[in-house]
Amino acid sequence: MPIYEYICEDCQTHFEKIVLNKMQEIACPKCAGKRNAIQLSVFSSANGANVASTKSSGGFSGGGGSCCGGGCGCN
Question: Which domains, from first to last, does the chain contain?
C-alpha cells in the first residue's frame, strides 16, 4: 500500500495518506479541502543520508556505490 505526501491547495497543510485505489478521493485532514497536490517524497538511503542532499555533478553518490548509491554495480 503506497503512502503519498500531499499539500492542500486551500490551507497549505502538508499530510500523508495511504492510497488503496487511485480513484480514491483525498481530503485534507485540517480543512477537508479536496484540492490537494501530490508532493515529491524524500527518502533516506541505507546509510541514513538524505538522498536529495547527496546529489553531486555525477548523479547520486550516497553511500558506497554507484549511480544508485547502493553498491550494486549498475555502472
Answer: 1-41 (2.20.28)
> Model-level pTM?
0.52
Q: Position of cell 497549505?
A: 12
Task: For residues 34 and 59, give the distance between their C-alpha atoms in angstroms, rounded to a whole number.
Answer: 36
Distance from C-alpha of 65 to C-alpha of 74, rounded to nearest angstrom: 9
pLDDT by residue for the chain (75 residues), tens only, comes to 678 899 999 999 999 998 888 788 999 999 999 999 998 776 655 665 555 544 444 444 444 444 555 556 555
